[in-house]
Protein 1
Amino acid sequence: MITLKIPYAPVHPGVWSVNADDRDFPQFKSRVDALRFAIREALKFEQDGCPALVAVEGVDGQWRMFDHAGKGIL
């Protein structure tokens, strides 16, 4: 299982990241771009037989999990 994490705050002003284990991913100009990328990557992982989730940190500091289709996981 791989979890692609998108923190609430940018790494630097105007720069968002997607983190997952020790994998290198590009940086993004917006949080929405990072989210789109993470969902696409999660779908690729799923298609390759590796379960994947996307974790998004909210303004409240809570992490929310989504599957490769952007559906919330409880």
Protein 2
Amino acid sequence: MPDLLQCWSPLIQGGFAIFSLMLLGVVVWLVKQLLKVLRDNSKVIEQNTEAFTVLSTTSQKTEELMQDIHDQLLARPCLLKHEDD
């Protein structure tokens, strides 16, 4: 039985070496994919920041417009006639 194991030993070592290289290749591929995702993530964060800036500006302008409308409505006289009059 030990002779049989020694006979297969080079094949087992070669298989292990090939398997190790395959796993190393998978790890390298995964790292490349991770770097790509991180790069894309940075772009998305940048675009979202720009969108929030635009949204903030629009919201501020809307608030100013609503305040102006509120002031104009308060400045108008009341046109409702009461029944007591």
Protein 3
Amino acid sequence: MVQVMASPKIETQAPIVHATYGHGPALAVVMAPVMPWWDEGRFFAPITERLVALGYKVMIFDSLSLEIPFGQADDLTTFTQAWRHILQGLGPLQLLAGSALGGAVVQGLLGSRWGRGIPAALLVSAPTAADARLDQRLGLMAQLARDGELQLALEFLDRWILPEGQAPLPTALPEKDLAQAGRRLTRGFGYLHGIDLRNAVQDYPGQLLSLYGAQSQLVRAANVSFARSPKHLAVSIASSGMRPHLDEPALVWASIREQLRLGAQVGL
């Protein structure tokens, strides 16, 4: 497999942050999940490597680098609309993808006229509709982060992104901006409270694939609740938690190629 370049091109646009991999003719945009610190897009590496090898330029955006101006409603609808204004200036997209919060943003974008023109969309552990369990767990981590209990919030996050029953490694806080990390968790998890994006997904005419872990402790089958059709497919990845693309990269990629017909988009 072709490896992603070790040092991506990192760009900041007052204050939008993203990493670019590859130089192919087809453009794929990826929206990141809630992370306490930006990781330059490494969270998506197994899929990015294959997209680059296939002929895509992959732009991975730090979703939480976009700040809603003071005085505006800071909710998922406003957040998604603000991202649409940024992304629609990139030119034609062949693939729009997102993980967790990033996938919720993607689903909101698919309900717009601009989003409906994108031929393929990929969701990884992305909730379409919240339920009581998801709201409770995300709300707990958001509250802990808001209260300054970042260590505890991260311990819950590290535990719940793993498959059910798998023990996490001890959590150690790095020497980074802890206050900013707490704000990112509070804000990011807050966007997902009570969401219901089923109508936005239903109206999307393109190819859609939603992947989630069968052993996920956060986004589960109950949250991937859009109507299935030949164009709109949800796939459960056995023995995986919130990161099926890391747990089963070959299986995930096979599902992506089959459902989203990515080779056809770059002439392969």
